[in-house]
Amino acid sequence: MTTTPLLEGRGLRKTYRMGRRTRVEALRGVDIRIDRGEMVAIMGPSGSGKSTLMHLLGLLHAPDVDGGSRPELRFDGRDMVTLGDGQRTRIRARSMGFVFQDFNLVPTLTAVENILLACDYAGVSGDAARRAATEALGLVGLEGRGGHRPTELSGGEQQRVAIARALVNRPSLVLADEPTGNLDSERSAEILALFRRANREHGQTIVLVTHDSEVGEACDRIVHMRDGRVRDAVVPTVREPIGVRVAAPAASAA
Ligand SMILES: Nc1ncnc2c1ncn2[C@@H]1O[C@H](COP(=O)(O)OP(=O)(O)OP(=O)(O)O)[C@@H](O)[C@H]1O
Ligand SMILES: [Mg+2]
Is the pTM higher than 0.90? Predict the structure, then answer.
């Protein structure tokens, strides 16, 4: 028996045209499949197309439909390419949470108001929304910072507000672009644990972009990208528990 993947893309291409002569082929035909309940890392060099792919998977941008075979993008078995803007927006608001690489917080709104906006888009308001927003701020360790505007928060704190906003509606799919990029290793481990809890306890599917191999190794699968293509997908080897690791000869004094 085969199960329908939560997210499936085939032949995804995206070319940016800048002026008449310059074209950047950010995605050159990506096939990707994300199963329900997976926690997947996307890794690859800067400029390899990771953010572009995330924007397509998160229905923020549409794949190119000209100049090659027709792209396919399915979420929960439904075709997203032919869907109208209104329906796409609704699916995104209710079923997806997106952490942008540059956070994308509304500068005139406080942290809690930024999170409440995501509740509002998903059709949750009033006390229920306030409770959920406060809980989400607590999850990322920012209780007490709800009244701050983005400019009154550090980069790492803004990133955590963006993560709280992505998680507040308990979306079935969380797409996070470098969610730990601005965090120190301790905070990074906490956020990773938070995603893992969301994944294990609530069955949320998580796709995150990372440059950090330790973050990648903590995921169920790593998809490697290069030059706008998926190079391979690997299951990270489970690291041996400390203590059974064989010490290197000579250098083992420490
Ligand atoms: N809006 C845009 N207009 C023109 N070119 C773009 C645009 N967005 C991205 N690109 C180009 O597309 C390519 C892929 O960019 P993308 O942001 O997807 O890379 P990335 O893998 O996320 O890199 P990083 O690790 O630095 O975030 C790059 O060459 C980039 O310069
Ligand atoms: Mg990027």
Answer: yes
Q: How far is the CA of 51 from the centre of ligand 1 (A)?
A: 7
CB of 52 closer than 6 angstroms to any ligand 1 atom = yes
Taking CA atoms only, the protein residue closest to ligand 1 atom 7 is 16
Residue spans of the domains in the chain: they are 7-66+73-105+170-237
Q: How far is the CA of 53 from the centre of ligand 1 (A)?
A: 10
pLDDT in tens, 3-31: 899 999 999 999 999 888 899 999 999 99
Q: What is the DSSP letter of 212?
A: -
Q: b/e per residue, 180-210, with b = 16+ CB within 10 A? A: bbbbeeebbebbbebbeebbeeeebbbbbbb
Residue 210 beta carbon below 6 angstroms from any ligand 1 atom: no
Residue 193 near ligand 1, beta carbon < 6 Å: no
- The CATH superfamily of 7-66+73-105+170-237 is P-loop containing nucleotide triphosphate hydrolases (3.40.50.300)
